[in-house]
Design a protein that fits this description.
The chain is an alpha/beta fold. It is built from 13 helices and 21 strands. The chain is globular, with a radius of gyration of 21 Å.
Length: 491
Amino acid sequence: MHTLLRGGRVIDPGAGFDGPADVLISDGTIAAVGAGLDVPAGAEVVDVTGLVVGPGFVDLHSHVHSIAGHRLQAMDGVTTALDLEAGLMPVEKAYADAARAGRPLNYGFSASWGAARAQVLLGATADARIGSGLAVLGNPGWQRSSSPAELTAWLSALENEIAAGALGIGVLMGYAPASDPAEFLAVARLAAKAGVPTYTHVRELVEVDPATPVDGSEEIVRAAAETGAAMHHCHVNSTSGRHIDRVLGTLDRAQRSGSRVTVEAYPYGAGSTAIGAAFIDPERLRMKGLGPSNVIVLETGERVADEKRLLQLRQADPGAPCLMEFLDERQAADHAMLHRTLAYPDAVVASDAMPVFWPDGNSESTEWPLPPGGSTHPRAAGTFAKALRLMVRESTTWTWLEAFRRCSYLPARILDDCAPGARAKGHLGVGADADLVVLDPERITDAATYTDPTRPSVGVRHLYVAGTSVVRHGELQTDALPGQPLRGEAR
């Protein structure tokens, strides 16, 4: 099967190319890129004149494990959606479940530090889905430090998950902020030994909690320097808040000294988590300069009135999803901080996409358009289109070539050493996977809002996953489930 994309502006961040060209797809891979390509017999020719053609976006931080969530991300230009910050356990079951149900997008998972600790410290079921089962996050039982025997047990569990194909280790340190820093160092040593990255939601900053065992961003820098591990700092904007300039300075010094630290951000001033999370505690909110009114219950839209109400909600249902505002995008100073985060050299875009919940508690739907009443964070539907709107269309901070570096090429390169399959993603070299996005450069924009979070982005005209059309002329193809697993290979 051949498809020829004719007459577009082709962006290949792998080759540094930005210019008019055709792209030939053959049997799920890129067969040729160049001007005036011949049309193979029987090929479908798609006129993409006036459109931008590039490698599909690689999202390192997506918690959507459903057809519904993948469809929203497809309309946002994503072709590969990976759950690496939290991960799932057991990883073999996560891959098997996705393959059995089918996925529109490529998928993959890290070894879940949180689930491994919960399994050992709580005696939780082996199917400890920390990433999608938020209730466990608010349980203080797994947040404590481990005994030597417990540490050995859950490190062994992580090692087994890596051997089973996990794409590194996802570390939700921000949900166990008082745990012994020596444990994090042990995880970094394991990652370095196995040749896989870590993906960390860091613990509190010292400015927020002077009693923290170690500053969250300093911890990741020190561990990378001491062990040589590749360490990825997740959603640096949400964990840093108004201290972002200090944190970026810390990371810059580490990178300049040769440490293997990478950074991601999303273009929103509010995060999403479980209301029982440690950092939603009223005292910790005060340390951040925030209050209960910065917390919004996702299912009901309730903006929490006071500390008494927040404590009630945390007690009644610690796993209830909520939004937490850490920056006010309407304020010029806060908007500028968010912009500086996205502009930080080589920071990649990652969504932290959350599942869609409907009033009946379901997080799966095969309907399209999605049924009304779904609640989630708008970043599930709009992260990449919003980043392009802010950084390319409105501010011209990024060129289109730079945008595809941040959204496609650099994320894939973070995975090269642990997942050979990643080397065929994020660029348009001959033989690369035919994961492509074709977008309208004048119209690409997010449409999802905090009050209407499931509105698909606008401007993605075509999307191909492994050469199969998932979005065609702006319309989602509901019968397309071509997603393939991206798995690690233990060395």
